[in-house]
Design goal:
OB fold (Dihydrolipoamide Acetyltransferase, E2P); about 350 residues; 15-stranded mixed sheet; 19 strands; single chain
């Protein structure tokens, strides 16, 4: 069976040494532009033999730390600083990034729920297909920087999926330590979760590392420094940066894990969210997480949300207006080596 070819074309030749910048051309025929294309920024710095790394951000368009960090690194690095190849895709879902939205305004596509994509599908599906079938097969590693976007705020964290292979699990822990975020955590893939980038990377035998660096639809200097320093340290650990471009050693990281649905708290009703705890707090099972107030019927008692288990509060919902099913918090607990659930 012959695999379908992507309709996206790159202005950058990923096999050529040197520093190149340009666009991925995603065909987009609309009323104002019959033969137009969406310009997705892409760059490549390649210098001889060595590891190949995809630096990706803007998977969700309202997450800004990675977009700025990767663009800053692209401008700073020269060919002499690289041993191998770094591919930059700093605004991967470019329509979403331009709109400052989690999902694309063209097709409402969530790129991180669209893999493996479709070469003949919507704009987001075509981007997902190109990443999984054109970019990832050229790479050994992918570093995909996220934050909480507009709806969540995170303690600045780096993360990796739990690997059944002990060697890959050990490497994941090494990369987390190299990144040096204040918090690092290991997650179990939810059953059937084959639509996100970590699953795409696994299908292509590529080592994936991610982050949740802040959020709230904003950017803090502290989170940006973590993104910039962490990216350089991971690249140095992989061996793709020359010694002259390597950053200072990593600070200590606290290693946690997120294992199942009981780690998350969801809004039991729609209304106004009053949180009862803050980021970094330690909580116990049964503790109040917050209240949902009914501004349409203010004489009603608010609906309580409770923590199902104990742990450290890693993320918190930011908008006060909340609908039933929205994520309010999620927790982490001390990491324990063991198989995925």
């Amino acid at each position: 069976m012959t695999m379908s070819k992507s309709r996206i074309r790159s202005e950058v030749d990923f096999k050529r040494d040197g520093k190149q910048v340009g666009f991925l051309r995603l065909p987009h025929s609309v009323h104002r532009s019959a033969y137009g294309w969406i310009p997705i920024p892409v760059a490549c710095i390649s210098n001889g033999a060595g590891p190949s790394v995809l630096l990706m951000a803007g998977n969700h368009g309202d997450e800004y730390e990675g977009q700025i960090a990767h663009a800053t690194l692209l401008r700073a690095l020269e060919v002499k600083d690289v041993r191998g190849r770094i591919i930059f895709l700093p605004s991967a879902n470019f329509p979403a990034a331009m709109a400052g939205l989690r999902t694309s305004p063209i097709d409402d596509g969530n790129l991180n729920r669209s893999f493996p994509g479709n070469p003949d599908g919507s704009a987001t599906a075509q981007i997902a297909w190109y990443i999984e079938h054109e970019l990832l097969p050229q790479c050994d590693y992918v570093l995909d920087l996220h934050s909480g976007g507009s709806s969540l705020m995170y303690l600045p964290s780096a993360l990796s999926r739990r690997h059944p292979d002990p060697a890959k699990m050990a490497l994941a822990l090494e990369l987390l330590q190299a990144f040096g975020a204040p918090i690092s955590y290991i997650t179990d893939a939810p059953p059937g979760d084959d639509l996100a980038l970590p699953a795409a990377a696994a299908r292509q035998s590529v080592m994936h590392l991610g982050s949740e660096l802040g959020g709230g639809g904003t950017l803090t200097p502290a989170a940006l420094r973590i993104a910039q320093g962490g990216t350089r340290r991971v690249l140095a650990r992989i061996g793709v940066l020359a010694a002259t471009a390597a950053p200072p050693p990593a600070p200590a990281t606290r290693l946690l894990e997120v294992r199942g649905p009981e780690y998350f708290v969801y809004a039991p009703d729609s209304g106004l969210f009053e949180p009862s705890v803050e980021l970094g707090d330690e909580v116990v099972a049964g503790q109040p997480a917050g209240l949902i107030h009914f501004h349409d019927t203010p004489w009603r008692e608010p609906s309580p949300a409770l923590f199902q288990r104990g742990g450290t509060v890693l993320s918190k919902r930011m908008p006060c207006r909340t609908e039933r099913g929205d994520c309010l918090f999620h927790l982490g607990t001390p990491y324990q080596d063991g198989p995925a659930r």
